[in-house]
Design brief:
The protein has one domain. Strand 2 and strand 3 form a beta hairpin. The protein has 2 helices and 6 strands, in the order H-H-E-E-E-E-E-E. With 155 residues, the protein is of the alpha+beta class. The protein has a 4-stranded antiparallel β-sheet with strand order 4-3-2-5, with helices on one face. A two-stranded antiparallel sheet has the order 1-6.
């Protein structure tokens, strides 16, 4: 006859894997959540930090271009018929913590001030003197910035 074991003997030979199952479940869920957190951090940086900084930069570039355009027109209004005149202008050293570039261009039909950094740029028309005087030059936000007028056209 076959000998039957008691319940206490069966329980002692049974392998208990509840602890391992809980550990594997915890590690799996924690790994997935950590991966989602990393993806979320990159998304938050692009959406909530870079987007508003680029919008701020565009509006600041527009203000800087308007200010330079006004200063050029003001200098043109007081410029001597024969002679030279120059003035120092104050523009911000950086916008949103980064440097930028300012360039006066002739597009053929209009004179513009382009303020740019990378793919963010603003074009401002120089009102009033585009047809009469050519404006050229460039600068950056840092250092001394100067507008110079010479009636002979030689710089």
């Amino acid at each position: 006859m076959k000998e039957l074991r008691t319940t206490s003997e069966n329980a002692s030979h049974r392998i208990r894997d509840d602890g391992v199952t809980n550990l594997v479940e915890y590690l799996t869920i924690s790994g997935i959540l950590l991966l989602l957190m990393i993806v979320l951090m990159f998304s938050v940086n692009a959406v909530f930090m870079e987007g508003p900084a680029n919008t701020l930069s565009y509006h600041a570039f527009t203000d800087i271009g308007n200010g330079i355009s006004v200063r050029i027109v003001d200098l043109y209004l007081i410029a001597p018929y024969n002679g030279t005149i120059s003035t120092h202008i104050g523009i911000p050293e950086d916008v949103a913590g980064k440097n930028y570039f300012v360039e006066a261009k002739n597009t053929g039909k209009d004179q513009i001030i382009e303020v740019s950094r990378g793919f963010i740029y603003s074009n401002i028309s120089i009102a009033g003197i585009g047809a009469t005087r050519g404006v050229i030059g460039n600068t950056t936000g840092g250092g001394w910035n100067m507008i110079f007028y010479n009636s002979s056209g030689v710089f």
